[in-house]
Amino acid sequence: MPKGAMPVLVGVGQVTDHWDGTAGPHGAPSPNSLCVSASQIALDDAGIAASEIDTLAVVRIFEDSVPGDRHPHGHNTNLPGTIARDISAKPDRAIYAAVGGQSPQQLANEMAARIHAGEIECALVTGSEANKASKAARKHGVEINWADSADLEIEDRGMGEMLLSRPEIKHGIIAPAYFYALFENAMAARDGQTRSERRAEMSDLFAKFAAVAASNPKSQFDTTSFDAAFLATPSKANYPFADPFLKWHIAQDAVNQSGAFIIMSEDKADALGIGADKRVYLHGSGEASDDFISERPVLDGSWAMETAINRALTQARTTPDAIGAFDLYSCFPCAVFSSMAVLGIDHKIEKRPLTLTGGLPFFGGPGNNYSMHGIVSMTDWVRNNPGEQGLVLANGGWMTKEAVGIWSTEKPDAFSPVEPMAKPSEKTPLVEAAEAGVIETYTVTYGKDGPMSGIIFARTESGERFIAAASPDAMPRLLDEESPVGLKVSVTHADERNTFMFA
Question: What is the CATH number of domain 7-162+253-408?
C-alpha cells in the first residue's frame, strides 16, 4: 500500500427499525443485526464484496459506554467480531471505538489519514443502537437475546477520558441535560432573555429540525405536529426536564438505528471499477477537545467547536459561505447555537440545510453513532449536488469532543490528514468552598413530582468559580421568569458540597 494515496468514500448505508415489542420477539433488532444490515447496504452501494475490507471500525454502543452498566439481554463481548462474521469479512484489524458522539467523523478522519499514510487500504465504519428494542422488550415482557462473541482480535479503545469531575458529581451534575442546561442559560443571560423567551428561541430553531425529520423516511419519530408552539409549551407530552429544556429539546435515545460507510484508497476504487458517481472526498477535517465544564472560561459557547470547525475550514481552503449544506450536531439547542455562532449563521434567515436528518431529538439520537447518519445523509446530498461542499459536525460529551468533516464529490488537489486533536491552554480556577459570589449560570432539574434540585456556577469576588446547590429557600427564585444570573449569593460548605441562598 503506497503512501500518499487519496482516500475516497464510496459506499453508505443506514437503517431505522420500528420494532416495538407488541407483536412478540420475531424481528427484534440488536446492535449487531442493525450494523450488519447497514454495512451490507453500504457494501451494495459501493458494489464490492466484504472480502475487500482490511479494516473494520465500530462505534461504541450505549451498553458498553458506562462502567458497570448492565446488559439486560446478554452481552455481545466482541461486537466488531460478530459484525465481521455476519457480513463474511475477514479484516486484518478491527477497532471498537472509545465513548463519544464525535466518533463517526473522528473515525472517518482517522481512516482517511491511515489510507493516506499507506497503513490500510479499505475500511468499513459502522455503528448502531437498539435502545428502543431493549426498552420495548422489557416493557412487554418479551425475551430477546443479544449475547454473542467471536474470535476476531480487536483493539478495544475503552471508555476514553473522564468527562465529569468530582465537584460536578458531588453537586448533582450527572446527566447530559444538566450540563447543557448550564450552557443554555448562560446564553440566555448573555442575550437578556427570560425563561419563556429562551424557550421560544430554542423552539423556533428546533421546529425547523422537526420539519426536516417529518419528511425523512429514516426518522425514528413522527414529528409532523411538532411546531414551535408545541415545542415551547410544557405539557404531558413535553414535560420539563432541566430548565430551560422540555422533553423535545433533548436528544431522544429510544431508537433502533444504524449506519455505515466505506472509505478506501482511490487506487483501490479504480481497481474495483467503482464509478465516479459514487465517490465522495474529505476536503478538510478538524478535531478539538475541552476540559471539564466547570473549568471552562467561556460557558455561552464552545471553544472546542470553534477550533475544530475553523481547522476543517482552513484545511479545506473554504469559508462558511461556500458550504452548501450542514449537519450540525443537535443534541440540545445550545449545541446548534454554538456552532452557528462559529459559522456566522442566523437560522431565522438561513436558507441552507442546517440538518439533513432532522436532528437528534426528532430523527433520533442513537448514542455515540448519530453523526454516522449525518455522514450518510451528507454523502447522499453531495452526490445529488455535485461539486458542492457539505459540513458535518460531530459532538461528544458536553461540547467536550468535536470532530468535523467537509465533504464533496469534487476531488481535491491534495489530501491533508487531520491534525492532532487540539487542547485548550486556559482553565478557570475552581474552588472547593466559597463564602459568597455572583451567579454565572444555573439550572433546575425535574423529577416526576416537579422541580427537584437547583444548581449554579458562580464567581467569587476574585474571579474564581464555584459550584453550589440551591437551599430550599433559594429554589423559588430559580423558578422565576427572570434569570437569576448576576444575583449575589451566600454559601455554606459541608461534605464537599456547597449550598447557596440569595444574599
Answer: 3.40.47.10
